[in-house]
TrEMBL record, chain A:
Alphabetized InterPro entries for the sequence: ACP-like_sf, PP-bd_ACP
Database matches in Gene3D superfamilies: ACP-like
Domain Carrier: 10-55
Pfam family, one: PP-binding
Protein name per its UniProtKB record: Acyl carrier protein
TrEMBL record, chain B:
Domain AMP-binding enzyme C-terminal: from-to ranges: 374-454
Pfam families: AMP-binding, AMP-binding_C
Protein source organism: Bradyrhizobium zhengyangense
Domain AMP-dependent synthetase/ligase: 124-312
Signal peptide: none
Protein's name in the database: Long-chain-fatty-acid--CoA ligase
Molecular-function GO term, any one: long-chain fatty acid-CoA ligase activity
InterPro entries: AMP-bd_C, AMP-bd_C_sf, AMP-binding_CS, AMP-dep_synth/lig_dom, ANL_N_sf, ATP-dep_AMP-bd_enzyme
Keyword Ion transport: no
Spans traversing the lipid bilayer: none
SUPFAM superfamilies with a match to the protein in the record: Acetyl-CoA synthetase-like (SSF56801)
EC number: 6.2.1.3
Annotated Gene Ontology cellular component terms: membrane
Amino acid sequence: MSVRSKVIEAIQQIAKEQQVKLPALTDDLSLHETGFDSLAFAILVARLEDETGVDPFTISEDAAFPATVGDFVRAYENVPA
Amino acid sequence: MSPREVFALRDHLGAELKGRTLSDAHDVVSLTDVLSQTVLGGRLRELSGRAVLLKLSDQLRSGLAMIELDGIARRMLLCPPDLNPAHLDAVIADAGIDAVVSDEPDRWADAGVSLVVTAQLPLQATTPAKTERATEWLMLTSGTSGVPKIVGHTLEALTGAIVAEGPAKGPAPVWATFYDIRRYGGLQIFLRAILSGGSMVLSDPHEALADHVARLNARGVSHISGTPSHWRKLLMSGSAAQFAPGYVRLSGEIADQAVLDGLKAAFPSSSVGHAYASTEAGVGFAVNDGLEGFPADYLGNRNGVEMKVVDGSLRIRSTRTAHAYIGRNAAALTDGDGFVDSGDIVELRGDRYYFVGRRGGIINIGGLKVHPEEIEAAINRHPDVRMSRAKSRRSPITGGIVVADVILAEGTDPARAKEIRDQILDQCRAQLASHKVPAVIRFVEALDVTPAGKLARTDA
């Protein structure tokens, strides 16, 4: 499964659990517009860390938290191996 | 006014009751004949009036030495097997120890303690001793870090709850416990066995659970106690089916509804009760209605035990509490009114109080305080869950999130893991505030339990 589809699937799973109604997950959708609160993002980052072995927001000091869904996915895609 | 008569353990033993024994995995000792025998090589007189450290590698000789020393030594410090050796010197200094009972006398040759007595089996014949004084019993708290605190008790305080309950009906009980008798929970059971006229079967840390259960059966154990973690391990082991004790007791950790129901199902003909006690606060109460928590009307003065809730934590005043922390810089054990703050946080729901966790065990989730035990209780309600541990994990977003490690009941189909995970999360969302719902659930094969029988909480 591609990194992108792992990320999207995790977002959808958490939205279901948190009863958040997601808009279409396009790359330029701002994370704010997903309806996720900070707890939902914290869950997302923790689960993706377990699944992919990386937490791009902790390992890189200069990583600003992404603004859009596309930025968020790329943060996982661009992690150096 | 004549001095009050002092009772020691020996005064609860005698040759009238036949067939009483104290046993471990290797030896069986007759309690009926124990007063005319010695585990101290006949050197009890030398220990009269001394402050004695009991530092033995096994519980059997420790128990026999307690019987001999109580009423003779001035103080007796029970050293649990898991005491960090680095803390021994501080404990010896704080307790003013001037004699050691050991099974490794060579190790004490240069230790600066003037008198070293070797405890040995088999027992040797001796002249029965007479009680001289009320010996002070010193126990160590089971905290995970730092030098343990020394807690001072008397036999009268230690046995207050046992005496209040009165003698057991029916045949003399055969007690057992998963605890070590050099800890408060285990000592309570040892004292029950002595005072009840019964026998006791000791645990052995090196014995497999199935072998332990076989031994409990062979010795006819009728009454048995352990922490909820001990009991969950037994339920998971598959060994419970061969065992049918009359009385099953839980203490030392929160007994949640899941473990109470699990024990009731595993032992349908047993009474299952949970007791509240701590090294400092003594035995508070027992709950025998099969439900978690305790009735709200236990607060106030009940059978000489006064309880109140202040700032969320249970406070206890009774003649069963310890009387002091011992040592040069020891803190006060009670407040100005004589109440011990248990540090156990309770919550009133309806007409019952529920334990939600330890004050010192709070984890911080995004700035909110969370008791891991409350989350574990919600997870454990799932019928396929046997045991769980909640803890915090750092999060770059909120600072911290809850994660949980879960052991599934034996025989659960691994293919159902995702379905069970979703059900646990649904259940937690229905019962807990959103920040307490685990962000991540991992299924694990085992969870660490401390030597004191409690779930290991390394992050708390």
